[in-house]
Amino acid sequence: MKLSYSKTSPYVRKVMVLLHETGQLADVALADTATTPIAPDDSLISRNPLGKVPALERPDGPTLYDSRVICAYLDDRAGAKLYGKGQHRWDVLTLEATADGILDAALLMVYEGKLRPEDKRMDAWVEGQWGKIARACATLNTRWVSQLSGPVDMGQIAVGCALAYVEFRLGDRGWRTGNDALAAWFKTFESRPSMQATRPPAA
Ligand code: GSH
């Protein structure tokens, strides 16, 4: 299998952490791919019309894209059951959706700063994105820490990668303030070998 990959993409990191946790790393070749909405990678577009990483070429069907789809496929392939069953499954999916929502908002903030000309930026819009992240962190802190503290699952992987990205790109916003339980959980989760092995290069 071939994974269209970027060292700094938090969505790719979800896939990489899952590959580490499920022992499938050797089954995937990594193809470094630089892509943005205003400079999409031509060869990636032929496999993922959305022009986004991660995308996974596989022998048994069309290229998979969107980290959620790729993670579900690789979990199934390994029989790892990181999405759980019954009520646990709905919890995991809600946590992954929350984590991906944090990432979507954080990436928009990063693109705003990097890709949009300064005179066209809109503070209220940027703060609106940060509001989503702040509310999601507060909800994780008050509602989800005991779920996050169980045996490793895809909800934890997604939240771990999302918080690591907020720290990496928006560290000066101080997401830990008022979120002590979540910060303590993250400190432990971040020390997992799968998280250490997938750290992005210094910003
Ligand atoms: N929902 C997608 C997923 O979970 O895989 C989001 C993937 C995504 O936005 N990846 C970014 C990208 O490829 C890199 S971090 N951006 C290029 C673009 O938006 O055109």
TrEMBL record:
Signal sequence region: none
Claim: Transferase is one of the keywords in the record: yes
InterPro entries associated with the record: Glutathione-S-Trfase_C_sf, Glutathione_S-Trfase_N, GST_Omega/HSP26, Thioredoxin-like_sf
Pfam families associated with the record: GST_C_2, GST_N_2
GO CC terms in record: cytoplasm
Highest rank taxon of the organism: Bacteria
Segments crossing the lipid bilayer: none
Alphabetical keyword list: Transferase
Domain GST N-terminal intervals: 1-82
GO MF assignments: transferase activity
PROSITE patterns noted in UniProt: GST_NTER
Protein name stated in the entry: Glutathione S-transferase
